[in-house]
Design brief:
single chain, about 70% helix, mainly alpha, about 180 residues
């Protein structure tokens, strides 16, 4: 049985060349599931989320020497995952000839054909509503609503003020409510 995860101890071990690899394995084990679902809610596809999760950990591993503990490890990892996800979505839009500020309808199509999606019709409608949101609002909504992250933590990940996050979340909720009440 693995010892209890202690971030302070893990960060110290990450700085030690003798223990870094072992400590990073604990980081991967501890954060894989939460990062996977954060990414998956943005890209929909299981395979894409899996690839982006691997990219996130590869980027974290290759930059671990630069992590000094100014932010929490979870914040640093979420920031990498968010950046990887946003870069991926930008490339997807370019491949699908969608304007950068356009609607991510290709994600709705993915949701419709996703063999891994096991939700009922109400969950599918909620996901469609969320996919109608602009990218940043979608991120904020997912982090706060599904992951129950505090605004202060989201602020650290996204580099946005708490006030702006609260406003974005409020607008996202209103748009989702409007979408759900207009869908038959």
């Amino acid at each position: 049985m693995s010892p209890e995860y202690d971030e302070e101890s893990i960060v110290a071990q990450l700085q030690d060349p003798q223990r870094c690899r072992e400590a990073f394995a604990l980081v991967v084990k501890h954060y894989s599931q939460s990062l996977y679902w954060q990414i998956r809610k943005m890209v929909i596809s299981h395979d894409d989320a899996d690839d982006l999760l691997q990219n996130t950990f590869l980027k974290a591993w290759s930059n671990i020497a630069y992590f000094r503990g100014d932010a929490r490890l979870s914040t640093w990892l979420y920031r990498i995952a968010v950046n990887e996800t946003l870069t991926f979505l930008t490339k997807q839009r370019q491949q699908n000839n969608i304007p950068l500020d356009g609607e991510d309808s290709f994600l709705v199509d993915r949701l419709e054909s996703d063999e891994w999606f096991d939700g009922d019709e109400a969950q599918r409608k909620l996901q469609k509503a969320i996919l109608q949101l602009p990218e940043k609002q979608r991120l904020i909504f997912n982090m706060h609503y599904f992951d129950e992250m505090k605004y202060e933590d989201i602020s650290q990940v996204l580099g946005t003020s708490v006030g702006a996050l609260k406003a974005s979340y409020h607008h996202a909720v209103k748009k989702i409510e409007k979408f759900l009440t207009s869908v038959h």
